Amino acid sequence: MVKKKTANKNRKNPPPQIAVGWYNIPIMYIAGQNEVLRVGWVAGSETLGRQSIFLSSWERELARQGVSVRVFCPKDASGGVMDPESIRRYTQPHWLMAASDRAQGLAELVQSAEVDVLHALDESAIAWTSAVGDRLDRPYFLTCQRLGTRLHLPHKGRRLSGILAPGGSIYQDLHQRRVTDDETVHLLRPGVWIADDPKPLEFRDRRAMVLADVYDAPNGVAETVLRSFAAVKDADGGAMFFLLHSERQERTLRRKSEALGLSAEMTFVVQDAGGRAMHVIQSADIFIAAGGRKEFDWGALLAMASGTPVLAIQNDVGDFLSDGMTAALFSPQDGEGLTGLLNNVLTDPAWGRAQAQSALQYLHVYHNPIRGISDLAKLYRAATNPEEPVAAAAEAEGEKE
């Protein structure tokens, strides 16, 4: 009985460090009637650094459903926490190369791996995925994570099987701009394994860890966060502050932090390509989503799934960031508003836990990993069998926000 309980718990919360390799397929799919489907995920230079902690869990669950994954990423990109055995690296083509030769290296890797279906994980991989799919006559999927994505597909996307949107606003944007046939666009919210309970948020014997993601945020937004940190430090003095940023931002952020007297309390974390920033997000007591980018926010999603209360700026993409339900929102220039929200969590743990609990309940319904990955597997299989109806994502599309 103890072994069975442990196995079930591991299935619910699979460790992200463990991923299933190309040939490590469950025996029931090798010996059974279901044929193993080989899928190639194509990533850009920064994709795995931001998403590998999610992708490694998806890879494992897909393997349980008879879908084996190979990851193709540039040679200079880190694999994050993905299993190195599942990664194949390609050389990014020079822009001066002839268009017909740019996808040659990736096409050779895909062909040697005998991939059945290709999937571009974000915009940075769309061009090469579509070129290789059409060249090798392989069906392919494209995931759009930003608003206003422009798709320039060779051969008018002859083998395009679907465009996937991780959020409702992106899904609606793709439809309104009619980037392709309506039936080709699918709303497929990313599944995520969630914590059993919110974080305790008790700071009697330790200092609170407050992490703000200001990656590529406008200077005004970053300044709002820093001023709020300074106000909380002067009033409370019991918090440690962390900034998640890009390399080009660090010099400016350090200078402004020093001017506000935050140097001793501030830790700077570069949003690197190694996936380390994702582990920092999981460890935070309070997460501030202040990047302001018009793209899907994987950091905020991970923080919510970790049972962390999230404070976020109002934006056009954060479908899962609902004020008063899954997060507490503030305007980009409202430093006093952010300071008040931070003090609420620091001084009233029950308030922060209630918000985090509501977010976990939301993720359980709308970002259920088993259902989401099952829908993805159905899409992959339907692409290789044109006679099979595409029933995947129907339930998710019926729940558009």
Question: Can you give a write-up of this model?
Answer:
By secondary structure, the protein is α/β, with parallel strands linked by helices. The chain folds into two domains: 2-191 and 368-397, 3-Layer(aba) Sandwich (Rossmann fold); 208-365, Glycogen Phosphorylase B (Rossmann fold, 3-Layer(aba) Sandwich). Helices cover 40% and strands 16% of the residues. Helix 10 (298-305) links the parallel strand 11 and strand 12 (310-313). Helix 4 crosses helix 5 (126-136) and helix 11 crosses helix 12. The protein is elongated. Residues 1-33 and 391-401 have low confidence and may be disordered.
Q: CATH architecture of the largest domain, please? A: 3-Layer(aba) Sandwich
Instruction: Give the strand order, joined by hyphens, for the main sheet.
Output: 3-2-1-4-5-6-7
Rounded to the nearest angstrom, the distance between the terminal CA atoms is 41 Å
Give average pLDDT, whole number.
83
CATH class of the largest domain: Alpha Beta
What best-fitting shape do the alpha-carbon axes yield? elongated
Strand content: 15-25%
CATH homologous superfamily of the largest domain - what is it? Glycogen Phosphorylase B
The count of strands amounts to 13
The CATH topology of the largest domain: Rossmann fold
- Could you spell the SSE succession in H and E letters? HHEHEEHEHEEHEEHEHEHEHEEHHHH
Tell me the structural class: alpha/beta
What proportion of the residues is helical, as a percent range? 25-40%
Q: What Rg is obtained from the alpha carbons, in whole angstroms?
A: 22 Å
How many H/I helices?
14
Outline the biggest β-sheet: 7 strands, parallel
What's the structural domain tally?
2
Low-confidence stretches: 1-33, 391-401
